[in-house]
Specification:
This protein has twelve helices and twelve strands. It is α/β, with parallel strands linked by helices. It has a single domain, classed as TIM Barrel, CATH 3.20.20.100. The strands form three sheets. An eight-stranded parallel barrel has the order 3-4-5-6-7-8-9-10, surrounded by five helices. The protein has a two-stranded antiparallel ribbon with strand order 1-2. Strands 11-12 form a two-stranded antiparallel sheet. Helix 2 links the parallel strand 4 and strand 5. The longest helix is centred in the first third of the chain and has 15 residues. The protein is globular. It binds NADP nicotinamide-adenine-dinucleotide phosphate. NADP nicotinamide-adenine-dinucleotide phosphate binds next to strand 10 and helix 11.
Length: about 325
């Protein structure tokens, strides 16, 4: 278990990502599978669950809440997020209370601002309400997700931020390059990173002929587009000898590498059913040797450090 900043909130060495359970973006989800996935994760030692209002407009939060009924509340870490439409001062507290109702809980362990505002709401306005939520005990700590360095530095002027949630994996290493990770290390801010498996690419289950239906957001995500997809698949391929050496799967090696990256508190790994959770759980409890970790780091950088700057992990528009 690792602590997030100075908060006293602790997370397990991997966190279960519950976005897919919302049913949107990922081409549908099955509630029974989702419940089984959460229970399997808890039984396997994962105590931390990451959800958000926007994951199925509350569906993922409800499922997390339902599964959590079988777990002692003080033993689990529940993470959810404030969506962009709720950042004005009169919306922050009601939005959090709606999340609490859907989760059927009295408090949220980590409440993230999901994205910086794209409608010009000053961050100080949102942070002031987040601080009120913290003072009232409705949330235990405040997080920022998808903020760049400049946006983070502005936000921390208005209240204590204990954790951030950026995208990070062997094929997406923006925070290495833009100073965010160094800033978090220097300032004791926890980092729980998302899309650890690059939405499935780093499981090795996709190939050049894989296509996604239009209701699956992967059809639009940068790494799945011509010019970038082949290189990402190659990174997965390069993990094979390491998987064989450690008698692990490619996914387990990719997760283990991320777990041991300096500055990453814990990676968030998404899963849609108990079978995937079971596989991902076996990424814990062992460690790549320093030499192998470095070798993987090198070929990962060869790909990830050469990517252009996309608007974000989900939007292939090149912004620089
Ligand atoms: N803050 C943010 O803006 C933000 C953004 C993205 C994600 N997140 C959080 O981070 C979590 C993780 O990221 P992610 O879900 O985007 O991506 P991920 O962890 O890279 O990949 C998860 C997906 O890969 C597939 N998968 C997982 N384990 C597998 C296995 N063992 N074998 C085969 N396929 C497997 C599943 O999809 P299929 O079965 O459909 O292939 C699963 O939904 C999310 O659930 C969410 O909680 C946050």
């Amino acid at each position: 278990m690792k602590q997030l900043g100075n908060s006293g909130v602790k997370v397990s060495d991997q966190i279960l990502g519950c976005w897919v359970m919302g049913g949107t973006y990922w081409g549908g989800a099955d509630d029974k599978d989702s419940l089984e996935a959460i229970i399997k994760a808890y039984e396997g030692g994962i105590n931390s669950f990451d959800t958000a209002y926007v994951y199925g407009r509350g569906r993922s939060e409800r499922i997390v809440g339902e599964a959590a009924k079988s777990m002692p509340r003080e033993e689990i870490t529940v993470i959810t997020k404030l969506w962009k439409t709720d950042m004005e001062k009169d919306r922050v507290i009601p939005a959090c209370e709606d999340s609490l109702r859907r989760l059927d809980m009295d408090y949220i362990d980590v409440y993230f601002i999901h994205y910086p505002s794209d409608t010009g709401v000053p961050i100080g306005e949102t942070m002031e309400q987040m601080m009120k939520l913290k003072e009232s005990g409705k949330i235990r700590c405040i997080g920022l997700s998808n903020f760049n360095l400049e946006q983070m530095k502005e936000a921390v002027q208005y209240g204590e931020v204990d954790v951030i949630q950026p995208c990070y994996s062997l094929v997406w290493r923006e925070i290495d390059r833009d100073g965010v990770l160094d800033y978090c290390i220097e300032n004791n801010i926890g980092v729980i990173s998302y899309s650890t498996l690059a939405q499935g690419i780093l499981t090795g289950k996709f190939d050049e002929n894989t296509t996604f239906p239009s209701d699956d957001g992967r059809s639009r995500a940068p790494l799945f587009q011509d010019g970038y997809y082949k290189g990402a698949l190659k990174v997965a391929e390069q993990l094979k000898p390491f998987a064989e050496k450690y008698d692990k799967t490619i996914a387990q090696v990719a997760i283990n590498w991320t777990m041991h990256k300096e500055g990453i508190t814990a990676p968030i790994v998404g899963a849609r059913n108990a079978r995937q959770v079971e596989e991902n759980l076996k990424a814990s409890g062992w460690k790549l040797s320093e030499e192998d970790w470095q070798k993987i780091d090198e070929f990962s950088k060869e790909y990830a450090y050469k990517l252009p700057k996309f608007r974000n992990f989900f939007d292939a528009t090149i912004v620089e």
